[in-house]
Amino acid sequence: MLGSIKDFKYKLVKNFLTKEETELLKQFTILFHQRNDSTFDTKQSITMDTMNYGNPATDALLLTKLKKMEEETKLKLNPTYSFWRMYTKFADLKKHKDRPSCEISCTVMVGSDNTPWPIYIDGTPIEMKPGDAAIYLGCDVEHWREEFQGDWHSQIFLHYVDANGPFKDYQNDQRQSTETDFDNRADAKLPDRI
Ligand SMILES: [Fe+2]
Description:
The protein is α+β, with helices and mostly antiparallel strands.
């Protein structure tokens, strides 16, 4: 489709979240991080940051923002999965592309200690304020971050596929539904990088 994200590849969306959504999700991720004793990132970073796949709260955001995502990308989309991570000092995000379920990716900034920490998408640094989001073709464009020097930075990831594209069968990340607790599946395959 002419004029879709398949042409422009990535974009910054200011105020993707309302102020109330931003505050709610910031508090949710801080409290989850403070109480977390079981869900840590053992793959991506030496900092063992708190991470969570398919949390009902972030999956709810995935569904709530579907229409807005379709407007922003000019595509009909199917939701795949949500994820969030509380980055802490010395965290990084190595240069990578994503797996098919991340064909249309959205990284949402929900809060931080105000340390600047841009994400680089296709070589362009993109700085986000709380509530802002960057939408990009996760499988096509390389994205990364430099080592984080601040204290905390909370980011939610929403993933979709083009409902008429080659990865349309990855809807719900091949879970039974977005309500399924994917983490507890015996054959759960966590993504290497988000
Ligand atoms: Fe990624």
